TrEMBL record:
GO BP annotation list: iron ion transport
GO molecular function, one term: metal ion binding
Residue sites binding Fe(3+) per the record: D93, D465, Y493
Protein name as annotated: MFI2
Residues reported to bind hydrogencarbonate: T150, A156, G157, G526
Organism taxonomic ancestry: Eukaryota, Metazoa, Spiralia, Lophotrochozoa, Bryozoa
TM spans (from-to): none
SUPFAM superfamilies: Periplasmic binding protein-like II
Assigned keywords, A-Z: Disulfide bond, Iron, Metal-binding, Repeat, Signal
CC per GO annotation: early endosome; extracellular space; plasma membrane; recycling endosome
Length: 800
């Protein structure tokens, strides 16, 4: 009995679900279509269409009975509304349809159809229009002229003519990822509708000159609602003498300069001429041989999530509309046609013949909702997308021309396998966005070797701590061009000393025989300011070049990653106990990179944390990872480090369940303070970590590198991307490439792009003071120079 009840219950559920899904996909439920409109005029025409449809005596042969009009500021907002389900349909230029296929799950189902010419449908071209009086007779004369475009990213009114100018070497790209800037640097001023919108101006730094010639004031200025935007805009610009050249479609130029319904043309065809790609000119009717490329007709786009039945209903509905409201005959257009161009009569009778779907001017303006010169719609393949429709690979090449980058690669030098892995993930993430120049990742075994690679031209950038920026600038002529910003402190951080609260008697004045944790050798927080603090408090009194020895005598055990590396230990006399507290095993122990578990500021704090483990647990824990270390009593870190690794902010096993109130800061006056008192209890203020490149790089090259990083953080600085985040190193690693506490990267001002100007007088004074006692600065360069000299001398002797 129970089995029968269960079977019956299951059958009811299955049948109900089947009925629901059948109703959901049934075309009979598609009774309304929401058309997205982008201007007041389009909204008025759309509402008129809705009204005329409601008044029809004989309903058209479609389940769709009504039209609703939803308004957006531009085509891109329409696409988002369609993606979100707030709209169904939008009519797009082929270039914007390409964008839709790349960025949205969209599909094309109908294209506009135009009258026949020479036994085939009249093709549409991109044309460049000049006033008849213009003296431009070669393409180079376009430089510094005023341009009016139909809109940024329009195939005919933007992409094709500008791409051709790049191909011909007339226009040079100045920005690898923002097409507007290159055009703005070529023309003196423009009306390029959309140039200042969010999509085309993500950082808000497109030049105002890109919109200077636009005519509408207020919020519609330089948008797709501007009086000089759209299909008629370029010709109106020329007529009003606010532009010297216009980019537009041939079909619109012909329509505007041709008589309709016995009325004079809207624009005198004898007042304009076409500029050809070879620099010659011809009449406005000569576009068959004087054009900048063929473009596809506008298309109707909907969401690819719509069922095939729904899309088919849309096709039926709009083709029926074309029959119900045919173009008014004026000798160039007539009743609707089927897909074979057979003339067909309307299947429904509208209450008025004054409304037409296509040639809507003068009441609604040119190309309102649909192209004025169109006569019907033609069905597209069910698998047609914007990429292939616009021209596929060939159109992609034209778009690539607009973003051709003067610099092919930005080679990022990294010093560990973990950094290499993150760099490669970043490479893939930027590739998805087609950002240029292409990121490349180069692995070396030390920061100094990366500096040398950049100096020699074998790498381009690396991100460095303030201490390394000093070395890179003084000995390798590297310069900073972008730096980390930490939000609350901006472009600097505080160097602090941290201890456990239980070590209540420990201060900066009684560190003898204790264990210490340092981020790395010669780093600002890990070495420079800690050693200066030891000198200032009188705990060490170093002589010339023996500061390292004195530090080794003061502390019982330490972890100073890199202290035994050749570049800091040329004589091989640095105390071994300064590495004994490091936790990595084998050759990784005490390395100046992330292979050492206690490397960096988070590593130094981990060194302090793990010293607090109970002896038995500590033995088991370190045995499980194959090493043993005592940990530390004091850690020298950045002020953000304790905060970022306590109170549940770090999920790594060593940081779990760590409480911030278990630790305190050690102040320069001998007192102790809570962790949040870093503004008054610190060792020094330190300039932020910065991205450096070779000093011989031009300002343009540095700007290109910065723009790539800026675009990268625009897309990947937040934690919303599961596959890559710029300022997050994942589990069990910290500060890979960029500091995890970075809020954003900022560009270094040109007058600060030297190591001395960037680091400032205070930091340079600190380093110079330390250099009197710690003679490791520049040691790597000197050692390399000696090796090079010996090698050259031997080779010379052998050749003799």
């Amino acid at each position: 009995m129970n089995c029968q009840i269960f079977t019956t219950f299951l059958a009811v559920i299955i049948c109900s679900h089947y009925a629901y899904t059948q109703n959901e996909d049934s075309p009979a439920l598609v009774t309304e279509v929401k058309i997205c409109v982008r201007s007041v005029i389009e909204a008025i025409k759309c509402e008129t269409l809705s009204s005329e449809l409601a008044k029809m005596q004989n309903p058209i042969q479609s389940t769709i009975r009504s039209v609703s009009c939803v308004e957006a500021s531009d085509s891109y907002k329409c696409l988002k509304m369609i993606n979100d389900g707030d709209a169904d349909i939008v009519n797009l230029d082929a270039g914007t349809a390409y964008y839709a296929s790349i960025n949205y799950v969209s599909t094309l189902f109908l294209r506009e159809k135009f009258p026949m010419s020479l036994q085939r449908e009249s093709p549409i071209y991109s044309v460049v229009v000049l006033p008849k009086s213009s003296n431009i007779n070669k393409l180079t004369m376009l430089k510094s002229k005023r341009l009016c475009s139909t809109g940024v990213d329009d195939a005919a009114g933007w992409t094709l003519p500008l791409s051709k100018l790049v191909e011909l070497g007339i226009l040079t790209n100045t920005d690898c990822n923002v097409k507007v800037k290159s055009a703005a640097s070529f023309f003196s001023s423009m009306c390029a509708p959309g140039a200042l919108t969010e999509y085309h101006n993500p950082f808000g730094d497109n030049p105002v000159s890109s919109c200077e010639q636009c005519g509408t004031t207020g919020r519609d200025w330089c948008t797709y609602r501007d009086m000089y935007a759209g299909s008629e805009g370029p010709l109106l610009c020329l007529k009003d003498r606010v532009a010297d050249v216009g980019f537009m479609r041939s079909v619109d130029l012909e329509y505007l300069t041709t008589s309709h319904h016995g009325e004079a043309p809207a624009y005198d065809p004898n007042a304009y001429k076409l500029l050809c790609p070879d620099g010659t000119t011809t009449t406005v009717t000569g576009y068959d041989t004087c054009n900048w490329g063929e473009v596809k007709p506008n298309v109707l786009v909907t969401s690819a999530a719509k069922s095939p039945e729904t899309r088919n209903e849309y096709i039926t509905f709009f083709k029926e509309l074309a029959k119900a409201f045919p173009p008014l005959p004026d000798g160039s257009s007539g009743p609707g046609t089927d897909s074979n161009d057979t003339v067909v009569a309307p299947t429904a009778t509208p209450t008025t013949q004054t409304f037409t779907l296509f040639n809507s001017d003068p009441k609604y303006g040119l190309n309102s909702l649909f192209s004025s010169a169109a006569i019907d719609f033609q069905t597209l393949s069910s698998v047609e997308d914007g990429f292939n429709y616009a021209g596929g690979v060939e159109y992609q090449k034209k778009l690539d021309n607009l973003l051709t980058c003067p610099v092919d690669y930005m080679r990022f030098c990294v010093v560990s396998e973990y950094e290499m892995r993150k760099c490669e993930n970043m490479l893939l993430a930027l590739g998805v966005r087609n950002l240029k120049p292409v990121l490349d990742c180069i692995l070396d075994n030390s920061t100094q070797n990366c500096m040398r690679k950049i100096e020699d031209g074998d790498a381009d950038v690396i991100i460095l701590d303030a201490g390394d920026i000093y070395e890179a600038g003084k000995y390798f002529d590297l310069v900073p061009f972008a730096n980390e910003n930490y939000g609350d402190t901006g472009n600097f951080y505080y160097s602090v000393a941290v201890s456990r609260k239980t070590e209540s008697k420990l201060t900066l004045f009684n560190l003898m025989a204790h264990n210490s944790c340092h981020g790395s050798m010669r780093s600002a927080t890990g070495w420079i300011y800690p050693v200066l603090s030891l000198i200032e408090t009188g705990q060490i009194t170093p002589g010339k070049c023996d500061a390292i020895k004195k530090v080794g005598e003061l502390f019982r055990r330490s972890c100073v990653p890199g202290i035994l590396d050749d570049q800091y230990n040329a004589a091989g006399t640095n105390p071994v106990n300064l590495c004994e507290n490091c936790a990595a095993g084998g050759m990784d122990k005490c390395q100046r990179n992330t292979r050492e578990l206690y490397y960096g500021d988070s590593g130094a704090f981990r060194c302090l944390v793990e010293n607090a483990l109970p002896p038995v647990y500590k033995f088991v824990y370190f045995y499980s990872i194959g090493v043993f270390a005592d940990g530390g009593d004091i850690a020298y870190v950045r002020h953000m480090t304790p905060r970022d690794n306590t109170d549940g902010r770090n999920s790594d096993h060593w940081a779990r369940n760590r409480r911030s109130d278990d630790y305190e800061l050690l102040c320069k006056n001998g007192r102790r303070a809570p962790l949040n008192s870093w503004k008054s209890c610190y060792l020094a203020k330190v300039p932020a970590r910065a991205v450096v490149t070779a000093g011989y790089k031009t300002a343009s090259e540095k700007a290109i590198f910065w723009n790539l990083l800026n675009y990268a953080q625009q897309f990947y600085s937040a934690d919303s991307h599961s596959y890559f985040t710029m300022f997050d190193s994942g589990v069990d690693q910290d500060d890979l490439l960029f500091s995890d506490s970075t809020v954003r990267l900022v560009e270094v001002e040109p007058d600060k792009q030297s190591y001395t100007a960037y680091l400032g007088v205070t930091f340079l004074k600190a380093v110079n003071t330390l250099n009197q006692f710690d003679c490791t600065s520049g040691q790597a360069t000197v050692s390399a120079s000696i090796v090079t000299f010996i090698f050259t001398f031997i080779c010379h002797r052998l050749l003799i």
